[in-house]
């Protein structure tokens, strides 16, 4: 399937309302697993519906390869049924009066595919999704995860070049969500289908996608691989939205010089030529380390003395709540901490683990290179 390209795509629902999507430039390459990630109301579902043809653009254009499928200025709009895409909704939308087999072959029947070819295709897809044993049952006789597999099978049976998924796992429990993530990963690998997946769940995006487009208030915040999104967030919104526990933020701009924020400002001033332009720094919880004394803190690291205010076991790891003169921090550990609530501990983090943002919340890229040049990663 050719590349999907959105250029300056916009969607507005009225002159008095803010744009649901604004000036969106996005390219989805053939065979990609693209996740549109963001909070409710950020425009991700609207973007998916514009790609599908369920929503008209207010401005801009959408191309599939060299073919324009939606352009207000050129007066072009290709209806959904002619875009050769499959769409799986958040609700499974299965026909309750049809068996699983007939739900699966529904699209092939509409296309008048010959019986032998139709049966072979349905058999292949049902076997791939492990639902062939339910072929004579009805949707009401299946669990949520099994119904989700049927909805996917119905789309895959018609072999669409592009599969659009609108939060398809949100109605499943935690175990089924994990199973279906693995299933989607396998489907993408086996069928080599271009997938556009809408979700507000960062872990779904991180574990499934080859590319993630993070959106907020109708605008694209960052486009990149899961590692790029996590390791080098373009701004504070991306940094705070992706990650669990969430990234620790020390607001340097408003500090009076006390607490960890003040210490961070003084630390950055030693290595950055314009500390007045820095608004905040972020530190991932897993980047924090404990030291029994200041002598154990590696030279050049950002460090401090904090109180342990809470210990939260999560099963395979522990979350420590720390506070230094009012500045809260969260730290994750993979071994049981040998400290108690109420004790004071020294913490430190590598210079390269600091995410520095300016007063507008944008990443300060210059500081990244300065830190790595002056301090080799420990």
Model description:
The protein folds into 2 domains: 4-240, Rossmann fold, CATH 3.40.50; 247-374, Nucleic acid-binding proteins (OB fold (Dihydrolipoamide Acetyltransferase, E2P)), CATH 2.40.50. Helix 4 packs across helix 5 (144-157) and helix 5 runs parallel beside helix 6. The protein is 28% helix and 29% strand. The protein is α+β, with helices and mostly antiparallel strands. The radius of gyration is 25 Å and the shape is globular. Residues 373-378 have low confidence and may be disordered. The strands form 4 sheets. It has a 6-stranded mixed beta sheet with strand order 7-8-9-3-10-11, sandwiched between helices. Strands 2-1-4-5-6 form a 5-stranded antiparallel beta sheet, covered by helices on one side.
Keywords:
378 residues, alpha+beta, Rossmann fold, OB fold (Dihydrolipoamide Acetyltransferase, E2P), 2 domains, six-stranded mixed β-sheet, five-stranded antiparallel β-sheet, 28% helix, disordered C terminus
Total of DSSP H or I helical runs spanning 4+ residues: 11
Oligomer: single chain
As for the number of domains, it is: 2
What is the approximate shape?
globular
Q: What's the number of extended β-strand segments?
A: 19
**Average pLDDT, all residues:** 88
Q: Strands of the largest sheet, in order across it?
A: 7-8-9-3-10-11
Strand content: 25-35%
Q: Helical amount among residues, as a percent range? A: 25-40%
């Amino acid at each position: 399937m050719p590349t999907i390209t959105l250029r300056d795509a916009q969607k507005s629902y009225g002159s008095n309302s803010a744009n649901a999507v604004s000036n969106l430039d996005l390219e989805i390459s053939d065979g990609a697993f693209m996740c549109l990630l963001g909070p409710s109301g950020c425009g991700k579902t609207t973007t998916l519906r514009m790609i599908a043809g369920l929503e008209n653009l207010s401005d801009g254009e959408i191309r599939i390869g060299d073919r324009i499928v939606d352009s207000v200025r050129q007066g072009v709009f290709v209806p959904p049924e002619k875009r050769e895409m499959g769409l799986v909704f958040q609700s499974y939308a299965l026909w309750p009066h049809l068996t699983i087999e007939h739900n699966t072959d529904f699209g092939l029947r509409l296309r008048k595919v010959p019986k032998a070819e139709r049966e072979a295709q349905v058999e292949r897809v049902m076997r791939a999704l492990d639902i062939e044993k339910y072929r004579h049952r009805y949707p009401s006789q299946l669990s949520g995860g099994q119904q989700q597999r049927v909805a996917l099978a119905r789309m895959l049976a018609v072999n669409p070049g592009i599969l659009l998924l609108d939060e398809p796992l949100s109605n499943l429990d935690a175990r089924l969500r994990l199973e279906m993530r693995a299933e989607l990963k396998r489907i993408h690998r086996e069928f080599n289908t271009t997938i556009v997946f809408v979700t507000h769940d960062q872990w779904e995006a991180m574990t499934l996608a080859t590319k993630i487009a993070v959106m907020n208030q109708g605008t694209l915040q960052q486009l990149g691989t899961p590692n790029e999104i996590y390791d080098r967030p373009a701004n504070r919104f991306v940094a705070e939205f992706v990650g669990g526990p969430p990234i620790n933020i020390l607001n340097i701009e408003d500090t009076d010089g006390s607490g960890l924020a003040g210490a961070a400002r003084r630390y950055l001033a030693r290595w950055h030529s314009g500390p007045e332009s820095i608004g905040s720094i972020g530190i991932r919880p897993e980047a924090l380390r404990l030291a029994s004394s200041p002598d154990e803190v590696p030279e050049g690291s950002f460090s401090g003395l904090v109180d342990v205010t809470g210990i939260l076991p999560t099963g395979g790891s522990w979350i420590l709540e720390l506070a230094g003169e009012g500045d809260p921090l969260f730290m994750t550990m993979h071994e049981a901490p040998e400290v108690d609530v109420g004790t004071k501990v020294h913490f430190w983090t590598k210079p390269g683990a600091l995410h520095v943002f300016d007063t507008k919340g944008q990443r300060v890229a210059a500081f990244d290179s300065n830190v790595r040049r002056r301090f080799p990663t420990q």
